[in-house]
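From the methods appendix. Each design record in this collection lists the tokenized structure first, followed by the designed amino acid sequence. Records were kept in a plain field format so they could be parsed without special tools. The example shown here is representative of the layout used throughout.

RECORD:
FOLD TOKENS (507 positions):
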């Protein structure tokens, strides 16, 4: 009997507790469903929010978090690594390597090798292997963020205020991030002309890396380093290559010596250069998929038929669409670039910007250096309070065929800055020893120029074209950055036999 009464009591208490619990759950459920903020975006807070997962943004984020312990969040809407890793420097250099090997196979006969190519270059195999390498790099970049305790969010970020950003995630949901400091490092994207009928049949410079099979005939439009590098690669791999340029030279920001020599060399190796050209229409054959390009150039009007691929490499624009700059009051230039000073400050306090989106010097190592120095200044010790990147004497290379290297100012710029009577220019032109065993028609050019200023002949410009120029320039770049003079160059004993020795024996 007692057991029955005890059981009844326990059952009653349990039922009562269950009823109370259900009542509370029901109440909470009603509160949640009726609350206007129930479905509001998740809100996060951080010390440093980096918008853009390219080289500059990642370098700055990792420095801020890994070195200084700042709570850092990085947001990227595409693939980590930005332009350089995915559709720029890295896959481009791999392609350039393949083209260089093709040239070496051709040149091997002069050295006594009987090299017979049993099959054409396997473009598809190469592309798949290159793409796999890039994918591994994407993973390494994400792993490095984790190692430095940077929170990584994949989504599209929009400024909603001076210290607040809304991120739209891949699944369409939204997050709000409140940040003490914000870095805009969104980079840029290639441009396709809008006023040429049929321009959509071509691809931009990013699309070059998506081409699935090697074209027999290709057309490139552009005169910058991207167009010149791609043209050299295609030609070396055996594709009939047409390069359309607006003027009579390309690489027009480089020294005239470089322009003249590289144009002449590209013509010598068989690249079809359409000078002073413009395109009026692009047509696509619905059956074959081949393109016809209608154009005007220095020789008159014409059309290029049976083109497999057309690549527009006519420039890049800042990636600022839907970034919400106007909501935070961030100023832009006439062409949309974010305006930032030498410390990477925008006009809005605690909002900074660097890399291609500001357009000062659009090179990966520049963005990385600027990003690290910015984080040193913002989060580092007192000794870094004035930390900033020096944008003078930045070396740059064009992986053309042959390579081009440049640091400092060009001869015309030196004349304008210092006056013709205050500069002295040293030139040399020779055939590199590598070509000694080859026939005249197979020998590539080597051209060097040293521009000096004042009575002490301080080196203010160095321009080189020829084999090994990229690796060579890095060392000479250190010397020039340190303020080297012609006498310093002369005092260095030459390494013989090399091409580089010509730079320390100039007369």
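DESIGN:
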């Amino acid at each position: 009997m007692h057991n029955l009464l005890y059981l009844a009591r326990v059952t009653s208490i349990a039922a009562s507790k269950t009823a109370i619990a259900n009542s509370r759950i029901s109440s909470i459920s009603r509160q949640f469903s009726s609350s206007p903020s129930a479905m509001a975006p998740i809100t996060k807070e951080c010390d440093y929010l980096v918008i853009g997962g390219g080289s500059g943004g990642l370098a700055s984020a990792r420095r801020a978090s890994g070195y200084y312990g700042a709570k850092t969040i990085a947001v990227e809407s595409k693939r980590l690594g930005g332009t350089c890793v995915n559709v720029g420097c890295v896959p481009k250099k791999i392609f350039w390597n393949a083209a260089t090997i093709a040239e070496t196979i051709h040149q091997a006969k002069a050295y006594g090798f009987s090299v017979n190519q049993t099959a054409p270059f396997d473009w598809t195999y190469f592309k798949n292997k290159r793409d796999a390498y890039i994918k591994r790099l994407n993973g390494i970049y994400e792993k490095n963020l984790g190692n430095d305790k940077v929170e990584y969010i994949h989504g599209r970020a929009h400024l909603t205020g001076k210290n607040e950003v809304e991120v739209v995630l891949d699944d369409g949901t939204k997050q709000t991030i409140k940040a003490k400091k914000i870095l805009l490092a969104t980079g840029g994207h290639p441009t396709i002309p809008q006023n040429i009928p049929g321009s959509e049949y071509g691809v931009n410079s990013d699309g070059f890396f998506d081409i699935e099979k090697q074209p027999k005939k290709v057309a490139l439009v552009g005169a910058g380093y991207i167009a010149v590098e791609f043209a050299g690669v295609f030609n070396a791999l055996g594709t009939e290559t047409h390069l359309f340029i607006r003027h009579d030279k390309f690489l027009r920001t480089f020294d005239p010596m470089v322009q003249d020599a590289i144009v002449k060399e590209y013509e010598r190796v068989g690249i079809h250069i359409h000078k002073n050209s413009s395109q009026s229409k692009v047509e696509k054959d619905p059956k074959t998929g081949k393109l016809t390009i209608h154009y005007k150039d220095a020789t008159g009007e014409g059309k290029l038929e049976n083109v497999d691929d057309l690549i527009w490499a006519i420039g890049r624009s800042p990636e600022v669409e839907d970034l919400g700059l106007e909501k935070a009051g961030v100023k832009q230039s006439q062409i949309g670039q974010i305006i930032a000073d030498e410390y990477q400050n925008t006009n809005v306090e605690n909002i900074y910007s660097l890399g291609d989106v500001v357009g000062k010097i659009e090179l990966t190592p520049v963005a990385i250096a600027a990003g690290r120095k910015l984080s040193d200044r913002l989060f580092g010790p007192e000794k870094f309070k004035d930390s900033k990147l020096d944008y003078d004497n930045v070396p740059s290379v064009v992986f053309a065929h042959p390579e081009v290297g440049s640091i400092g100012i060009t001869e015309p710029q030196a004349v304008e800055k210092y006056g013709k009577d205050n500069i002295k220019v040293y030139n040399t032109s020779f055939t590199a020893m590598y070509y000694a065993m080859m026939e005249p028609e197979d020998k590539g050019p080597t051209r060097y120029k040293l521009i000096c200023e004042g009575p002490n002949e301080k080196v203010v410009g160095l321009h080189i074209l020829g084999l090994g120029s990229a690796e060579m320039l890095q060392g000479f770049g250190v010397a020039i950055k340190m303020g080297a003079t012609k006498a310093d160059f002369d005092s260095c004993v030459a390494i013989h036999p090399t091409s580089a020795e010509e730079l320390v024996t100039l007369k």
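APPENDIX NOTE: The CA atoms of residues 68 and 379 lie 6 Å apart.
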